[in-house]
Amino acid sequence: MIIGIIAEGTRDYDIIENIVQLIYPDCICRLIQPDISAIDRSTYNGWKGVWQWCLNSQNLVNELNKIPSHRIDLFIIHLDGDTIREKQMHCDNSHECLLESVPSAAYCKIPSALCPIGIKGEYLNAEISYKASYLKNRINEWLTANISSITVACVPFDSSESWIVAAFDKEHYGPPELIIKPADTIIGRSSSYHGFKVKRKDGELKKVKNLYIDFLIPKLCQEWSNVKKLCPTAEAFQRDFEQAMEMIIV
Question: What is the pTM of this model?
């Protein structure tokens, strides 16, 4: 079974890949987005990269299907929950933007301070389940490829690192998914995290591969059962993933 993962970043991919193989060890995961082979900067990283991929998915999936060995049995599309605070995440008509004409929302480069969109309080103050549902719906709305039936959304709140904090610190800081920017405020707030050396740049955690592969992700997998109890989006991801796999296997 080939699982294609569209993620905000490569560390998010590493996290999802390990969880997938924890649940279904025989699955083979492939990183589709971000496209680390693109050297011309024609694609975005982060949530805009996921957005761009979804909008272009019809052509991209058609290209994948042309080569039998590249075909994907199931897609996992990842968005961090903190994207709910991005104005463009609530944009439905970028072509009518009051400031400039932009070809599509995913390419909009208007600074947030100048963006005319106002985010309704219902999105910022709602329960995590409501906000997660909103982001999942956005993913389905963006997709141009007919792959909704073989697509699972992964939307950890506030980010993938919330699940890691849940694994290491349980409820020491309160509900893990209510922590704002846990990568920076918890994991990377000092020079070490639970005895493992971490690095920062411009006030943010440097998400180097060895930190995740050698230290953070093994603990996450070890504590996955507890993480699901503390993080509703982790439980929802495994449930949705297992349901999708059951349909495909049958």
Answer: 0.91
